[in-house]
Amino acid sequence: MAGDDRRDRGEGGLLLLSGLIALVFTRLGTRAGSATGVAGYTAAGLGPRAGQAAAWCFLAGVVTGAPVVCLIGGAYVAELLGAGGRAAYVAALCLLVLVLAVRLGGVRTGTGLQLVLVAVLVTLVVVAVAGAAPGARAAHWTPFAPDGRAGVARAASPLMLAFVGWEAVAPLTARLRDPRRQLPRVVGTAFAVTALLYLGLAVATVAVLGPRAGGPVPLAGLLRVAIGGYGPVLAAAAVALTLAATHAYLTGATALATALAGGAGTRRGTAGVLAAVAATSALLLGAAWAGLVTTAQLVAVPTALFLLVYLGCLAAAVRLLTGAVRLAAGAACAVVALLLAGSGWAALVAAGVAVVAGTRGRPDPSARVRSRAPESRHKPEAGRSEPVDPGTASDVCGQSVTGP
User: Fold this and answer.
1) With the C-alpha atoms ordered 353, 356, 359, 364, is the resulting torsion angle positive or negative?
2) Which whole-number Å values give the CA distances from 286 to 84, 273, 290, 301, in the listed order?
3) How far apart are alpha carbons 291 and 326 in whole angstroms?
4) Where is average pLDDT lowest: 82-86, 124-128, 157-161, 318-322?
5) 65-94: string of b/e by CB count within 10 Å (b at 16+)?
6) CB-side exposure of 393: number of CA atoms within 13 Å?
7) Could you read off the pLDDT of 121-152 as tens digits, one per residue?
8) CB-CB contact of 160 with 307 (8 Å)
């Protein structure tokens, strides 16, 4: 994602926050497991209206965030073709149409394909970081924080979009056969891989690119330093990862929409979510093309929506959990509240969505969830285990690694 060096220098703190959130979501997933994910977690601790608000904030975040993720992939396509900035918007629209067609057709990203995509990402980052390392310059780290703490604070909120993802896979974790055993392992692996990738890439971006770190395609810049002119070509592989991330978000959104509808009208719910994504994306990308909105403004809205979702889940966790995880939830809740406050006008938009969703109509009873630990989905009385979706684990890992 595009950004300047002060954003890269704030990634360590956001990684720590992401780790705390991952820990809390893992415990919520095993204690208050729910097919409605964030809606169920929030409802369990704060009530059904809060759960309804969290659900709609998440869905709104996916609808407004999908064009942003595709725009990132579009920037790499434009770099590959050596085209102007307008080409990125056309490429983003093409990517969006492709991923919507795949999701509408009911094709799921299977475990094998998701692991291949993650492997491609790891390979790209390792090649870029290791190959460009000889070009690192200590002078690029001076001054360490050119705009001071205020600059880091301003950059932290929009950069948070690069670290979200736990909320997207929350509805999918209920499909695990043995959440108490499988969920911590999957989430732990996803976070470890994510942390290594982001830290390595952030350090290399600042140390090697220096003033050029603020470009829209920093990975392509590192690959160009590492292996020459073929860098942008290899960076185009990020397009596939963009598709995987967007698809994972859409999968989570449609799963949530279906669960909130009580499992009825699955195809209709999926089509509704995808139609909303298509219409909103066309509007936002068109506005960006015309220069009516900036990329920073596009990023701000879904970031604030996801932060509000996190705030609800973490506040619920403070009430539901105990011990060290409860303390972690409280600390993360305070930081997320500060980040949300730093979102400015976007926070007001997110709050408006939450208020309208939470006060409109009667709360959906399907958002209620028992505060218990779904230790296993094995059914001894039936003598069998409920099958687990083979794509679930890869969606959890893949979304966390390939998120926007």
Assistant:
1) negative
2) 16, 20, 6, 16
3) 45
4) 157-161
5) bbbbbbbbbbbbbbbbeeeeeebbbebbbe
6) 17
7) 788 888 889 998 898 888 887 766 666 565 56
8) yes
User: Which residue intervals of 205-265 are DSSP H helices?
Assistant: 218-227, 231-235, 238-260
Contacts of 311 (CB under 8 A, 6+ apart): 333, 336, 337, 340
User: Among 254, 245, 399, 325, which Cα is nearest to 29's?
Assistant: 325
Rg (CA), the chain: 20
Q: Which two tokens stand for residue 385?
A: 């285990």
Return the closest-CA partner of residue 176 out of 357, 388, 6, 353: 388
Who's near 291: CB < 8 A, 6+ residues apart? none
14/21 Cα distance (integer angstroms):
10
The residue with greater pLDDT, 388 or 361, is 361
| pLDDT for 355 | 94
Length of the chain: 404
Q: Which amino acid is at 267?
A: R
What DSSP string describes 26-63? HHHHHHB--TTTHHHHHHHHH-HHHHHHHHHHHHHHHH
The model's pLDDT over 296-338, given as tens digits with 9 standing for 90+, comes to 889 899 999 999 999 999 999 999 999 999 999 999 999 999 8
Helix (H, G, I), strand (E, B) or coil at 265: coil
- Greater confidence (310 vs 404) lies with 310
Distance CA 167, CA 399 (A): 10
DSSP 209: I
- Give Dmax over CA atoms of the chain in angstroms: 67
Cβ distance 43 to 234 under 8 Å? Answer: no
Say how many C-beta atoms besides its own lie within 10 A of residue 205's C-beta.
27
Contact between 7 and 159 (Cβ < 8 Å) = yes
Which tokens in the block code for residue 122?
């790891």
Strand partners, 379: 384
User: What is the value of pTM for the model shown?
Assistant: 0.78
**Cβ contact 103:274 at 8 Å:** yes
